[in-house]
Write a structure and sequence with these properties.
flat; 6 strands; six-stranded mixed β-sheet; alpha/beta
Length: 173
């Protein structure tokens, strides 16, 4: 008898929760920006590269396509079949010293990498720019050991950060 009443109370609680939770304002999935509400498919074109890092545009373009696809708000499609495309450019990569060597103040131990990406979202059906924005992301690396590999890893990490930032802008309004 006690288990029946517990089961009945639990069932009533679950039923009440099912009716009350939707009215709390929670929603599954992101809120698309108003200009992208009806868009379902996307395409990422190869970004232009105005920096001195030759692989920067390739890393950011592929990271953006991967991140947007994994998010699930939009589906990846071929250029001629997508609702919108994302174009952009790596406009600048700058470096600054974060930490200097205690014995030689002209030698940096840790270096900051700041990557500036400008992007625009273009409606493929009417060829009109819907969104134009930019983002600046930072990464860092240590100036010891294999500096070339450390710098490449920092650029790869910055590309992932830029892709995440752009994806957030396009999926969460």
């Amino acid at each position: 008898m006690a288990t029946k009443s517990r089961h009945l109370i639990f069932s009533a609680f679950v039923l009440a929760a099912l009716f009350l939770i939707p009215s709390c304002g929670y929603r599954l999935g992101g809120y698309k920006p108003r200009v992208l509400e009806k868009m379902q498919t996307f395409n990422v074109t190869m970004m232009a590269n105005y920096s001195l890092e030759p692989e920067a545009a390739v890393l950011i373009s592929s990271a953006l396509a991967d991140t947007l696809q994994r998010d699930g708000t939009y589906r990846l499609a071929a250029r001629g079949e997508s609702d919108f495309r994302i174009e952009g450019e790596v406009s600048r990569i700058g470096y600054s010293s974060l930490r200097t060597n205690t014995e030689d103040t002209y030698l940096s131990d840790e270096i900051s990498m700041n990557v500036t990406v400008k992007y625009r979202v273009v409606d493929n059906s009417i060829q009109r720019t819907l969104i134009e924005n930019s983002c600046i992301v930072s990464s860092s690396y240590y100036n010891s050991g294999n500096v070339q590999t450390a710098r490449a890893n920092a650029l790869s990490y910055a590309a992932q950060l830029a892709a995440q930032r752009i994806t957030e802008d396009l999926t969460n309004g």
